[in-house]
Write a structure and sequence with these properties.
Layout (H helix, E strand, L loop, with lengths): L2 E5 L2 E4 L4 E8 L6 E7 L6 E6 L6 E3 L7 E6 L4 E6 L8 E8 L13 E2 L3 E6 L1
Parallel strand pairs: 2-11
Antiparallel strand pairs: 1-3, 3-8, 4-5, 4-9, 5-6, 7-8, 9-10, 9-11
Length: 123
C-alpha cells in the first residue's frame, strides 16, 4: 500500500523559511514526486516537481528562486525548502507521486496523495 506522509508545515512570518518533508512508502520503481498547494477558494496548483533520479526539476513561476525541491532516494523522502515566504504562500501543501507523466506540475493523473501539511505565513 502506497503512503505519502507530509510534515514540516507551520506558521511563520513573511520572509521566513520552512522545510517540508514527504516520506513515501510502498512505491515500487521510479516516480515523479510533486508538491502541490491549495489555498482556500483556489485551485490546487503544482509548485515543484522532481523526477526519480533528480535529473529533472521544474518549478512554478510563483516560487522559482525561492523554493528548492530535493529528494533522498535512500530514505524515499522528498523535501521542499521554502525561503522568502510571503502571505500568498499560505496554503495546504500536499505531496503526490506518479510513475509517469508528461506534465508533472499538473494534478491530472496523480494517483497517490498525502493528506497535506498546513503552511501559514503572516505579515
Amino acid at each position: 500500500q502506497v503512503q505519502l506522509v507530509e510534515s514540516g508545515g507551520g506558521s511563520v512570518q513573511a520572509g521566513g523559511s520552512l522545510r517540508l518533508s514527504c516520506a513515501a512508502s510502498g512505491i515500487v520503481g521510479g516516480y515523479w514526486m510533486t508538491w502541490f498547494r491549495q489555498a482556500p477558494g483556489k485551485e490546487r496548483e503544482g509548485v515543484a516537481t522532481i523526477g526519480f533520479t533528480g535529473g529533472r526539476i521544474y518549478y512554478a513561476g510563483s516560487v522559482k528562486g525561492r523554493f528548492t525541491i530535493s529528494q533522498d532516494i535512500a530514505k524515499n523522502t522528498g523535501y521542499l525548502q521554502m525561503n522568502g515566504l510571503t502571505v500568498e504562500d499560505t496554503a495546504m501543501y500536499y505531496c503526490a507521486a506518479v510513475a509517469s507523466t508528461l506534465t508533472p506540475l499538473a494534478r491530472t493523473g496523480y494517483k497517490y496523495w498525502g493528506r497535506g501539511t498546513q503552511v501559514t505565513v503572516s505579515s
